[in-house]
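Input (structure):
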């Protein structure tokens, strides 16, 4: 590394106080009475968080661009105005219902913290840095999840996206226009060479092993389905059990089957996170049940096998319980391996900072899995206390949050300035 570069690298510092203050500020948007926050994709609360993020991007004089699905990008240009060869640092700012403060927000605002480090030091990167917040990562209101990054990487046509109907009946396209985030930027103009995402682990591995940094090697495949069961509503007191077409019992059997499937597998995880009966009354046999299925596995073949087993079980259930069944696929993503070169650069950066680290598999879905289709992609995890996430109790101490962003800065500096990593100086 030449002298000037080494000098520039040395001047880059994360403003930790501003980062922590911004995480707290975003966490106040959509605040619930019991301490969590809800910013479902394209809701009023999401708009408010987007407006705040865009304001912070403008304060850093980033060039803000919005694409047709509402993905937000803040660009710190390199030597020219082209985004070829860019490094993108991103995540999301939408949440599940009653979420913790860090999921997504930590990664997006850490990208901003890296841009701030360049601005504060008066250092211009040689390549562009793009800070990204992708639309609808959570997939709670509109499916599939990771929708913004899926669109950005060419995995779903815009017409399908805009026609997607949410769980509240709203159309995505209308909501996007309503909150003023239907942009025009052509995604292909911003496809980066490298993508980094910093995230809380959202699981118990790092915390239980007392490790400070997770170097994410791979990410589980995901299969989401919606199953609708139709039976016959009838009187709870008069209808003999043998004469029932009970959608509720059929749904319960699916829940138990999926738990047993997971227990008998080496690595499959299964969840029924939503189950609704109708008419949903104490003395009426349910005529209808709608449930969601979430199956995940880091092994592609095992994920496909779990899906097959479920479909076979549903066929048996149809006959045994005398019910009608329909199955709709809501999301289906193969497992992903992240870029090995970037993973070892992250590992090195953690080591040079004196932080303990380990290789880890991501149990959660992330925008990085979509970006891995078009760029060299990698992820950095910090521990989640007790492995709690998608819950207001999600917690990571400030010190660990800042360690994560220091590793991110070092890796980013190595990519954005000629020569190696900051810690090599
Ligand atoms: C995204 O949060 C997921 O469901 O993994
Ligand atoms: Mn997330
Ligand atoms: Mn999440």
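Output (sequence):
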């Amino acid at each position: 590394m030449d002298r000037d570069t080494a000098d520039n690298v040395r001047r880059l510092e994360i403003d930790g106080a501003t980062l922590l203050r911004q995480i707290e500020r975003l966490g106040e948007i959509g605040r619930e009475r019991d301490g969590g926050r809800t910013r479902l994709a394209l809701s009023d609360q999401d708009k408010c968080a987007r407006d705040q993020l865009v304001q912070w991007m403008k304060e850093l004089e980033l060039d803000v661009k919005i694409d047709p699905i509402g993905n937000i990008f803040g660009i710190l240009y390199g030597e020219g105005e082209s985004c070829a060869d860019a490094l993108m640092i991103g995540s999301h700012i939408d949440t599940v219902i009653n979420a913790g403060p860090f999921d997504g927000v930590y990664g997006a605002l850490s990208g901003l913290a890296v841009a701030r480090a360049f601005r504060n030091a008066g250092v211009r990167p040689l390549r562009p840095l793009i800070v990204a917040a992708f639309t609808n990562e959570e997939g709670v209101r509109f499916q599939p999840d990771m929708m913004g990054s899926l669109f950005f990487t060419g995995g779903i046509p815009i017409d399908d996206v805009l026609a997607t109907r949410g769980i509240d009946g709203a159309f995505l396209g209308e909501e996007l226009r309503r909150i003023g985030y239907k942009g025009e930027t052509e995604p292909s103009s911003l496809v980066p060479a490298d993508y980094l995402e910093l995230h809380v682990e959202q699981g118990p591995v790092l915390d239980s092993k007392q490790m400070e940094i997770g170097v994410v090697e791979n990410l589980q495949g995901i299969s989401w389905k919606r199953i609708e069961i139709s039976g016959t509503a009838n009187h709870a007191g008069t209808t003999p059990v043998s004469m029932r077409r009970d959608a509720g019992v059929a749904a319960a059997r699916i829940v138990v089957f999926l738990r047993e499937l997971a227990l008998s597998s080496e690595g499959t995880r299964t969840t029924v996170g939503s189950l609704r009966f109708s008419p949903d009354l104490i003395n009426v046999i349910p005529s209808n049940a709608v449930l969601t299925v979430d199956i995940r596995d880091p092994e592609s073949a095992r994920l496909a096998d779990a899906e097959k087993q479920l479909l076979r079980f549903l066929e048996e259930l149809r006959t045994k319980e005398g019910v009608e069944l329909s199955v709709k696929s809501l999301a289906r993503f193969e497992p992903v391996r992240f870029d090995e070169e970037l993973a070892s650069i992250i590992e090195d950066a953690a080591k040079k900072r004196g932080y303990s680290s380990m290789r880890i598999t991501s149990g959660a879905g992330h925008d990085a899995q979509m970006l891995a289709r078009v760029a060299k992609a990698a992820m950095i995890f910090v521990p989640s206390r007790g492995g709690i996430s998608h819950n207001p109790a999600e917690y990571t101490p400030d010190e660990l949050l800042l360690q994560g962003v220091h590793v991110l800065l070092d890796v980013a500096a190595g990519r954005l300035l000629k020569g190696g990593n900051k810690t090599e100086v």
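Notes: The first strand starts at residue 63 and ends at 66. Residues 138, 145, 364-365 surround glyoxylic acid (ligand 1) (CB under 6 Å).
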